[in-house]
Amino acid sequence: MEINKQLGSPASFVDQTVVPGDVVLDLSTMTNKTIKLGGGLRQDCDSISVMKAGKLRSSKPNKYWVESSQKRYVPCVEDTILGIAVDSKADNFLVDIKGPALAFLPVLAFEGGTRRNIPKFEVGTLLYVRVVKANIGMNPELSCTDASGKAAEFGPLKDGFMFETSIGLSRMLLSSPTCPVLEALGKKLSFEIAVGLNGRVWVNAASPYTVVVVANAIMNSESLSSTQQIIMVDNLLKSIQ
Amino acid sequence: MQEAELVTPGEVLGRAAELKAGKGAYVAPHNKTIYASLTGLRRIIPPPTDSADQRPTVEVTGHKAHGPVPEPGSVVIARITKVMARTASADIMCVGPKSVRENFTGIIRQQDVRATEIDKVDMHLSFHPGDMVRAVVLSLGDARAYYLSTAKNELGVVSAESSAGAAMVPISWTEMQCPLTGQIEQRKVAKVEVN
To answer: Across residues A131-155, what is the average pLDDT?
Structure first.
C-alpha cells in the first residue's frame, strides 16, 4: 500500500503539482474554519481530495482551487468567452463555445433588445459573450450584456483573426497586472485584442502583418516564464524589422 | 361463473342483447355484436342484483402486456431524465401504486412546477436529472409526452442524490441536504405525509 502524504495544513500543498486522489486536507483536524473550494477539489465526508491534475493554488483568506491547462472548456458562470454562431432558432441563437454542449444566446439578450430589432447573425459570426447559466446537463445560457444590462463591448467582432489556444494561456493573457507578452507587444505595435476564457483569442490591427506577428507571439508564449516571454517578443520584433 | 378463454382483437364475444361490453370489448353498432379489442382472457362478470339492466358484463383482461396507463388526474412517480431552460422531461415509472410495463414519457413545464410565482421558476433549482418526483398527470399532452404537474404541496421531488452521491434529506420545501458533506441543494420538495 502506498504511504499517504502527510496531511498537515493545506499550506504544505499549495503551489505544488497534485494529481487526482491526493488528499490535501483532513477536516476532522480543523474546527470552526470556513474553506471555499474551487474547481478541481471535492469534499469526501471529512477530507478534501483532488479531482483534476494541476497546481494547487490558494488565495487569502481561505480559497483553494486546482489550476490546470487543457484545451477543453467547461462553462462557468460569469466567464467572458468567444463563441461562434452556428444556428438561429425562434428564441435563441445556438453558439459553439468549445464546450460539451452548444450554448443558447437568447434573441433579446442585447442592450435595448426587443422583438422588433432582433440582430441577425450569419453562421460563423464570432461573438464576444458572457455566460449567464452553466448547469451540468443543461445547455449553457449566454448574454451580450453585462449584469446591469449595458452592452459593454459584448457582441459580434468584425474583421480581425481568431485563433485557438489552451485554457491556461487565455487565463494568463487575462491576468492582471498585464501579462508580459501583451505588454511587450503593446509597446511597439498597436492592435486590438479580445480574449475568451474558452481558449479563443481574436486580434485585429491595421495591417495583416501586425495581426500575424501578434498571433504568433501569443501562441509561442504558452510555456514561457515572464522574462522568457519578453525576450521572445524582442527577438521576434527584431528579426522582423 | 368465470371462463378463462384466450381471445384476440376482433373475436366475437357474444351478442349485445345478452351481454354488456366491459373493458377490452366493444359493441359493433351495425350488427349488435360484441367484439374483443384487446388480447387477453375473456371473463364474464355477473350483473349487480339491484341494477335495472340484468345483462352480465364481458371483459377482456389479465394478459401480461396490460400494465397500468397514466390517465389525466392520476398521481405518478417519475424519474427526471433531462432538465432544460423551460421544461423538464421525466420517465414515468409508476401509476398510483403499480409500476408501468412500458415506456411513458412526461414533461413538466415551467408554469406547472409550483403554484406561486410561476414565471420566476428556475428549472435547475427545482429538479436535477435522476431525481424521483411525484407528479399528477395534467393531460395526455402531445404525441411525445404526457403533461405532468408538481404544483401542490405533496407533489415534487421525493428522492434525490447529491453531487457527492448520497441520498439527500429534505429540510424545507425548497432545500435538501446531503448527509455526507452537509451541502444544501435546491429542489422543489414534496411534502410527504408521515404516519
So the answer is: 89
**Segments of chain B with pLDDT less than 70:** 1-3, 62-66
Closest chain A residue to the Cα of B182, Cα to Cα: A45
**CATH classification of the domain holding B168:** 2.40.50.140
Say whether A43 and B83 touch across the interface (CB within 8 A): no
Answer yes or no: do B49 and B89 share one domain.
Answer: no
CATH of segment(s) A80-156: 2.40.50.140
Which CATH architecture describes the domain A10-66? Beta Barrel (2.40)
- Quick check: B85 contacting A, CB < 8 Å? yes
- Measured CA to CA in angstroms, residue A82 lies from A67, A87, B152, B186 at distances of 21, 16, 42, 31
Nearest CA distance, B83 vs chain A (angstrom): 6
- Measured between beta carbons, which residues in chain B are less than 8 angstroms from residue A138? 83-85, 123-124
Kindly report, residue by residue over B41-78, the tens digit of the pLDDT.
888 888 877 777 778 888 887 666 667 889 999 999 99
* Gap between the Cα atoms of B116 and B84, Å rounded: 20
- pTM, two decimal places: 0.77
Domain that holds residue B140: 75-186
A42 in contact with B, Cβ within 8 Å? yes
- Are residues B129 and A43, on separate chains, in Cβ contact within 8 Å? no
Choosing from B15, B42, B66, the residue where a domain stops is B66
pLDDT digits (tens, 9 = 90+) for A59-118: 877 888 888 888 889 898 999 999 999 999 988 999 999 989 999 999 999 988 888 989
Indicate the pLDDT class of residue A5, thresholds 50, 70 and 90: very low
Cell numbers standing for residue A223: 510555456
User: Is residue A4 predicted with pLDDT exceeding 50?
Assistant: no
| Cα B6 to Cα B41: distance, rounded to the nearest angstrom | 4
Superfamily of domain A161-239: K Homology domain, type 1 (3.30.1370.10)
**How is B32-79 classified by DSSP, letter by letter?**
TEEEE-SSEEEEEEPPPTTSS--PPEEEEE--TT------TT-EEEEE
- Whether B129 and chain A come into contact, CB under 8 Å, resolves to yes
- Helix, strand, or coil (residue B160): coil
